[in-house]
Amino acid sequence: MRTYAGHSSAAASNALYRRNLAKGQTGLSVAFDLPTQTGYDPDHVLARGEVGKVGVPISHIGDMRALFDQIPLGQMNTSMTINATAMWLLAMYQVAAEDQAVAAGEDPATVVKSLGGTTQNDIIKEYLSRGTYVFAPAPSLRLITDMVSYTVAEIPKWNPINICSYHLQEAGATPVQEIAYAMSTAIAVLDAVRDAGQVPEERFGEVVARISFFVNAGVRFVEEMCKMRAFVELWDELTRERYGVTDAKQRRFRYGVQVNSLGLTEAQPENNVQRIVLEMLAVTLSKDARARAVQLPAWNEALGLPRPWDQQWSLRMQQVLAFESDLLEYEDLFAGSTVVEAKVAELIAGAKAEIARVQDMGGAVAAVESGYMKSALVASHALRRQRIEAGEDIIVGVNKFETTEPNPLTADLDTAIQTVDAGVETAAAAAVREWREKRDADPAKRDRAAAALARLREVAVTDENLMEASLECARAEVTTGEWAQALREVFGEFRAPTGVTGSVGLTGGAAGAELSAVRERVAGLGDELGEKLRVLVGKPGLDGHSNGAEQIAVRARDAGFEVIYQGIRLTPEQIVAAAVSEDVHLVGISILSGSHMELVPEVLERLRDAGAGDIPVIVGGIIPESDAARLKALGVAEVFTPKDFGLNDIMGRFVDVIRDARLGQTAEPVNA
After folding, report:
1. Nearest C-alpha neighbor of 13 from the set 50, 57, 74
2. Rounded CA gap, 340 and 233, in Å?
3. Is position 167 annotated as part of the catalytic site?
4. Cβ atoms of 622 and 594 closer than 8 Å
5. For 498-634, where are the alpha helices, taking DSSP H only?
6. Which of 224, 352, 407, 416 has the most Cβ atoms closer than 10 angstroms to its Cβ?
7. How would DSSP label each residue in 242-306?
């Protein structure tokens, strides 16, 4: 039983973890901030506005020691949501455990052997959804391969990769796509480990036994439960037939769950509680496919960062199910059900067909590099949005049953979510500079750090396992940014395909008529201005959750706009340069990480400095009402949040904003 947690600083997160453990939480699930996930120190330009926002910043071994102060790592099960820099965080975790052992008079090697937990480390889904990749697929897979090989030999209880279908569903995956792309990723990883030859053939079953999965459970809980049974059957077949694993225990499908956050609503957020409970049932009702670990989001995650009390509520949901209900006392409730068997068979057949399609392309890496999987997910997500807009998929409180009594939970929105002190980033940036300066002021420490980084670069150009070199970097007090930069110098960086390559379109019904009306307005204003309307969709900072930006870009193209979308991880300077060079009529900024108050004002200021202050800027993301008001006061034309689900309505507002900026007038929508 876990809650996914971490924010502000190592010390603040440590206090939160110890409170949660005292409340009955049985494991830790660590959220790292975006600079840590993408290999930047807090004082890097790209870290601006992101430090401590969606997780805890860990810049060096000192931070890792502080994060787990008074938490005995040899007895803890720790899940770390980290991917591109997973090797680095595991190296620091191991060194922190060794330090604890020495302080307690224990044998460090024995404690390391006892370490239990998981590094997420699924880089494939980062190219498809979360966007915290750093390197291209090939060197990224090499880092994963080295970690798997190292942990099997040295940290046998550790799960070195947690293959994540969770984020695929967030990006729009159907159950079939979720199963197929997760299994394709597993094949890519297992093939790479086998072919690397670091693990003896007779021990390959141990590799399979350490592979775990991180799965999404949506509100359609019968279908989700069947999906899990399909996962179990397919994994057993795959590991037996493709890899020759004969031990049934090693073939067991071991998975943890974070129930769906995509379906949580800003409108009537109290409804999220029953959604979370239904989603938890999907992965606990069926004993033959039951999750081994469950973590639940909080009811207010569509509004902002949950408070400790909100996290406690989610933990208590699990405890009520586990200790008050009788659910865990019975054998599988669905064995022999013809309905379940038919649905499972349907999902398996569809997944096998999609797996075969990906394998025919050359596997998961090739399907990422070609853009196939990303485009498929963007299209699936667009179709889901269309069904919601058309009322075919009902979301209670959003597109049906919208009337509501005043909500006491959100009466004061400024206190209904956790906020991160604005001074956190300044303090973290100053602290990491002080760490480097203090280290380098000691000639022995400076030379050791330099030698460790040089060794890391040397090993990176060979086939040697990178884990030992990373461990020495941790012991030598190297920082996260220094470790990642050394590998960037060898591996280079990578920009994944955006998936925004064509139109999806709407056909028939009221939603189709609305889109047609918006197209007419777009074309009409373009005729008035004598040029096609151009929209730039930008994602500044390190927020890689691009699903919303992609859906806006796709619908804008369907509505007749010319769309400039360059993907994730841009600086405000780059966004402004693109807006000016493309002579756009509107700039749309998407931020979900909470850095809007730092990055959006900079975009506005840079537009004015470039003589383009007349280009209107709109912002979308998880933005509290008070922040939305402040952004509008600074000059933002419009702010959209998750409650604004009607993409055609948003496109209509694009036209209004452009008309007002260019002609000083706003026309009534055609369908008003």
Report:
1. 57
2. 13
3. yes
4. yes
5. 509-529, 547-558, 572-581, 596-609, 625-634
6. 224
7. TT----TTTT---EEEEE-STT--SSSTTHHHHHHHHHHHHTTS-GGG--SEEE---TTTTTSBP
Q: Are residues 516 and 492 in the same domain?
A: no
Task: State whether residue 356 is helix, strand or coil.
Answer: helix
Catalytic pick among 93, 166, 181, 565? 166
How does DSSP classify residue 135?
S
Terminal-to-terminal C-alpha distance of the chain? 50
The reply to whether 150 belongs to the active site is no
Catalytic residue status for 596: no
Residue 269 in contact with residue 409, Cβ under 8 Å?
Answer: yes
CATH of the domain at 533: 3.40.50.280
Same domain, residue pair 529 and 478: no
Check 167, 352, 374, 381 and give the catalytic one. 167
Same domain assignment for residues 375 and 415: no
Residue 595 counted as domain residue: yes
pLDDT tens-digit readout, 160-213: 999 999 989 888 899 999 999 999 999 999 999 999 999 999 999 999 999 999
The residues that bridge with 5 in the sheet, in sequence order, are 30
Residue 286 class from Cβ within 10 Å (0-12 exposed, 13-18 middle, 19+ buried)? buried
- Whether residue 131 is contained in a domain is answered as no
* 137 lies in some domain: no
Cβ atoms of 468 and 456 within 8 Å: the answer is no
Q: Which residues, at least 6 apart from 464, have a Cβ–Cβ distance to it below 8 Å?
A: none
Asked if residue 210 belongs to a domain, the reply is: yes
Closest CA to 207 of 130, 149, 131: 149
The whole-number pLDDT of residue 505 equals: 53
- The pLDDT tens digits of the residues spanning 329-381 come to 999 999 999 999 999 999 999 999 999 999 999 999 999 999 899 899 988 98
Q: Which of 449, 473, 497 is the last residue of a domain?
A: 497
What's the total number of domains in the chain?
3
- The range of the structural domain enclosing residue 432 comes to 1-119+405-497
Residue whose tokens read 């730092």: 598
Q: Are 621 and 486 in a shared domain?
A: no
Catalytic residue among 43, 63, 543, 627: 543
Q: What is the pLDDT of residues 529-551, one digit of tens each?
A: 999 999 999 999 888 888 888 88
Give yes or no for a contact between 161 and 190, defined as CB atoms under 8 angstroms apart: no
Looking up residue 376, the CATH number of its domain turns out to be: 3.20.20.240
Q: Are 540 and 575 in contact (CB under 8 A)?
A: yes
Residue 558 shares a structural domain with residue 622: yes
Identify whether 4 is a catalytic site residue: yes
Q: Which of 227, 545, 585, 596 is catalytic?
A: 545
Looking at the fold, whether 379 and 425 belong to one and the same domain comes out as: no
Q: Tell me which H or E stretch contains 312.
A: helix 308-323
Q: Which of 7, 539, 585, 596 is catalytic?
A: 539
Q: Quote the percentage of the chain above a pLDDT of 70.
A: 96
Question: Which of 358, 393, 428 is the last residue before a domain boundary?
Answer: 393
For the segment 611-615, the average pLDDT, to the nearest whole number, is 96
Is 539 assigned a catalytic role?
A: yes
Shared-domain flag, residues 438 and 553: no
Q: Are residues 339 and 482 in the same domain?
A: no
